[in-house]
Amino acid sequence: MKDHPYAIEAVNIVKKFPGVVANDHVTVRFERGRVHSLLGENGAGKSTLMNVLYGLYSADEGDIFVDGKHVRLKSPSQAIRLGIGMVHQHFMLVPPLSVVENVMLGTRSKHEPILDIEGACRKISELAREYGFDIDPKAKVMTLSVGQRQRVEIIKALYRGAEILILDEPTAVLTPQETRELFAMISTFKNQGKTVIFISHKLNEVMEISDSIVVMRQGKVVARLAPQETSQVELARLMVGRDLKPIPEVNTRFGETVLEVSGLTVRADTGVRAVRDVGFELKSGMILGIAGVDGNGQTELAEAVAGMRKPEVGRIFFKGKDVTNTGPLPRYQMGMAHVPADRMATGLLPTMSVGENFFLQEFRYPPYCKKGILDIGAMKKRADELIAEYDVRTPTQSVPVKVLSGGNLQKVILAREISRNPSLLIAVHPTRGLDVGATEYVHEKMLEQKKRGCAILLISTELDEILELSDVIAVMYEGEIVGVRNRHEVDLEDIGLLMAGAKRDVTKAS
Ligand SMILES: Nc1ncnc2c1ncn2[C@@H]1O[C@H](COP(=O)(O)OP(=O)(O)OP(=O)(O)O)[C@@H](O)[C@H]1O
Ligand SMILES: [Mg+2]
Prior knowledge:
Elements: E1 6-17, E2 20-31, E3 35-40, H1 46-53, E4 61-66, E5 69-71, H2 76-81, E6 84-87, H3 99-104, H4 117-130, H5 146-159, E7 164-168, H6 176-191, E8 195-199, H7 203-209, E9 212-217, E10 220-225, H8 232-240, E11 257-267, E12 273-283, E13 287-291, H9 298-306, E14 313-318, E15 321-322, H10 328-333, E16 336-339, H11 343-347, H12 354-357, E17 369-370, E18 373-374, H13 376-389, H14 406-418, E19 424-428, H15 436-452, E20 455-459, H16 463-469, E21 472-477, E22 480-486, H17 492-499
Parallel strand pairs: 3-8, 3-9, 6-7, 7-8, 13-20, 13-21, 16-19, 19-20
Antiparallel strand pairs: 1-2, 1-4, 4-5, 9-10, 11-12, 11-14, 14-15, 17-18, 21-22
Helix pairs in contact: 4-5, 14-15
The structure holds adenosine-5'-triphosphate (ATP) and magnesium ion.
């Protein structure tokens, strides 16, 4: 059967959700032994199609063929038996369990009821070596970084004998180095004659890794191309249906100091000092970009500034007031906004509606609450405005927010935080998971805020984003600010060396 040219085929797939046709007669055939990229704007239906191929959703119409054979997928376990593995956009691991326990979950052993943990550990280590990963099978998943967790997900699929590997936006959360390692693993997998379906919003990656590119828009396949016959500009146009605009230069005069941080030392959950003696000043109308490889203390710094994590040492002044010992709510009331790194855990309440998620704090105050009485009508009206303004793709505002596509979840948080016209916006990976069109829109919105006089602390692992938007760039490495540069004195090699810890300024600039 394995001589069939297509590893997996989706023919005329229709998948509807209340109010949306997520897949509208989609036909795609994935040749064996190749890397296929699936591109498309947020909400185009990419994850839905993959979930159908993985047996997680059953299609309303259409057929699936694996190795040329018609199959009816009723569950992921059936898909796994057919050699299909999937790493989801939002991971599905159990954090308190170890790597080996997570990998073995849901698999059946020949020796049941005896579990061969040691044997599984050996197999995991072998797979890891084969694909160039470094992984400790006994480590608890909660102690692993995002990149390491992703490897566990991949190992889990390989352990179950995947011949077809679906990777839903795997690089959105990876450092450039981890992306290189993932690409090496993808190549090994492909060279063994196996098939990869790769979803990404990063067009340069798609051009580099793919043998073929499928573009979706509004539930339909709109193009199928080879990387040699297209360009990033054309792909962007196919995805969003228009040309992208270059980011304008926005020069503003800086006003008074909005945020002043001095001598800040913050511990991470693991107890290590994630932020060490960090100090900076951020003025009204200024964007301070914190560059650095993920995991160098950026998240902890953002959480400390937002009041979600207590610093061990140091002081934080917001609008001239010492807020070091206050929690998030008073800072929020003073005009601080926060787009957190983990949208599902801290940015949103997943089971509440899209509309309600816009007012998680706001509902307490006028115009939404007067004399203790909630004005539901006012909130509904405002929610519809925000949905339209930020182009949040949702059937209605009353669906639970968790059913939105990854990029649209991010838009809900951004709409809520930016539309408050804050004095300080802490934006951590603000465009993670956003398509190129939505990214452009969010950048415009941030620049609009800057023009208004908002001070922005931009934390991102996307160096391009930092360089395009920031007035001042600070590089964090192992919890410290190792260099500060002005927008116009940036030299890429210099920034790269700072990010890699290969260089640091002797005297810290301010
Ligand atoms: N479980 C669900 N219930 C209701 N609607 C859903 C569900 N899953 C997806 N949708 C809707 O289907 C559409 C397609 O979503 P999908 O997640 O497939 O998009 P995507 O292309 O993966 O986007 P992104 O790039 O943002 O991840 C969206 O409008 C989404 O809101
Ligand atoms: Mg998706």
